[in-house]
Model the fold of this input.
Amino acid sequence: QGKSDILAKGGELVVHPPLGKILMAGGEWLFGLTPFGWRFSVAVVGSLSILMTARIARRMTRSTMLGCIAGLLLALDGLELVMSRTALLDIFVMFWVLAAFGCLVIDRDRSRAWIAVAAADETADEAGPALGIRWWRVAAGVCLGCAVASKWNGVWYLPAFAALTIAWEIGRASFRERVEISVGAVSLQKK
Done:
């Protein structure tokens, strides 16, 4: 026996955090407590994941064709197809982790652009330009929190994303040095 009112006091067997179940309940609220209602929000999230994969691959490779191929490969993947048509919480974890990765890619690209502009203007000191609060990184943290709030095994992505962020920060420092060297070489050639 299941309760159709998820906000009522007292649960039966609560083994997962509530966010994924609340997202599924949105489909049930729209279409009733039917198999279509159970699967609606899962199918929407699975379809959005294909679009996000294409956009993330496009941003990372700077190639629309490769982005479309990445989206197509995910759309044709059997596990993605099954998970986005079955009322399970795993697709929500995948969606939020993918969204967090996309946010980190945007943060990486924007910080590199700020460094390049600061190096060209020669407005930054030796430590580099002040990047302030990096809102895309905050959004990535929120998305990872939503992954954990959907299912507990989302917690294992936290150390992986921390390592990725540290690696990109180390890469950002070497990128800043390369930009400063190339800007310096261009300014020497102009003199």
